[in-house]
Design a protein that fits this description.
By secondary structure, the protein is mainly alpha-helical. The chain folds into three domains: 4-55; 63-141, Type II secretion system, protein E, N-terminal domain (GMP Synthetase, Chain A, domain 3), CATH 3.30.300.160; 157-173 and 186-231, no CATH class. It is built from eleven helices and six strands. The strands form two sheets. A three-stranded mixed β-sheet has the order 1-2-3. The protein has a three-stranded antiparallel β-sheet with strand order 4-5-6, with no helix packed on it. A hairpin with a 4-residue loop joins strand 1 (87-93) and strand 2. Helix 3 (33-39) packs antiparallel against helix 4 (45-56). It starts with a helix and ends with a helix.
């Protein structure tokens, strides 16, 4: 069986020098070669998928099923399992005995076996890229279900970077006993105001993190290439 890197180089979508860089990265940090190449921006994700499909003999999903998964198929795999295994159920065949599933790692037989046990169906895997899969999961599964204790009465809950809860557009303030210098309640703001405040907090923290990373690179703690390779994992 031809290796993924060889297929990409022969197809002239990947330079040999870039392949060797990716292989060194894989040897140092581990991970899947295809995902490393995408993080390096050496090859588009779709080219990786086409090459893996050829290498493994696993088909890509039918475009119609990929864009419109059947609700009965989606119901076979809970959202948390789909995220854990990086899969998206697409369709049921053979009177519901076979489940067609898009997978980021269809060659992982342990994941296929786990899906078999969870669904009670024979699994017919298709191969997709991790990035495309994540977007499709978000689109077709929707927002995560509310957990115990979360409100569902028309208000919303947002946690800012300091761990403070912004609920229903109103910051929660601990209540002090009467007459013991309780702080005045924070003024109510609309949803836009809460999100604007959260975005500003995140912007400042990202700027501080970037400054720290640049300082560490200047001091020689790690190289810029090592940093970029790690954050793209």
């Amino acid at each position: 069986m031809a290796r993924l890197g060889e297929i990409l180089v022969r197809a002239k979508v990947l330079r040999e020098s870039a392949l060797q860089t990716a292989l060194r990265e894989q040897q140092r940090w581990g991970g899947l070669l295809g995902e490393i190449l995408v993080r390096m921006e050496a090859v588009p994700e779709e080219a990786i998928v086409v090459a893996l499909s050829q290498q493994l003999g696993i088909p890509r999903p039918d475009p119609k099923a990929w864009t419109r998964p059947h609700p009965a198929a989606l119901a076979k795999v809970p959202q948390e399992i789909a995220k854990k295994l990086r899969v998206l159920p697409l369709a049921l065949r053979d009177q519901g005995k076979t489940l067609v599933v898009a997978m980021a790692e269809p060659q992982n037989l342990l994941q296929v076996d786990e899906l078999d046990k969870i669904t009670g169906c024979r699994i017919a895997p298709c191969i997709v890229g991790p990035g495309a899969l994540e977007k499709a999961q978000h689109l077709h599964y929707g927002a995560e279900e509310l957990g115990e204790g979360d409100v569902d009465t028309g208000t919303f809950k947002v946690i800012d970077a300091q761990g403070r809860t912004l609920d229903g557009g109103r910051r929660k303030v601990a209540q002090a006993p009467e007459g013991v210098g309780a702080p005045p309640p924070a003024p109510e703001t609309g949803t836009a105001g809460v999100l604007s405040e959260l975005e500003e907090t995140q912007r400042r923290e990202v700027a501080a993190l970037r400054a720290m990373v640049e300082l560490l690179i200047e001091r020689g703690v790690f190289s810029r290439e090592e940093y970029l390779a790690r954050v793209r994992r």
